[in-house]
Amino acid sequence: MLQKGTHLLIDCREVDRNVCLDDQLFLNAMADAATAAGATVISQVRYRFGDESPPGFTAVVLLDESHCSAHSYADLGLVALDIFTCGRANPHDILAILCEKI
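Request: output the structure for the sequence above.
Response:
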């Protein structure tokens, strides 16, 4: 079997509502965590929901090694994380650093 990378899908439950609404905090924390884990950040984008949809956000950090994304659902206290890397950056390291920052 040929493996090109490692993919983590994580559902974070009982997340504080303020954290679920802070798209800038999450975007910065994901980019910092990826960089600290040895990945190369190429681009970042975030979008905050709530006007015509339930409150929350989507934040994506595009990496040379792939990506990190977070989708929050403030009313549910849920953040869904998606971290995929190939090459030298380990997504488990990114997750650990992200947890420390958040």
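The chain has a mean pLDDT of 94.
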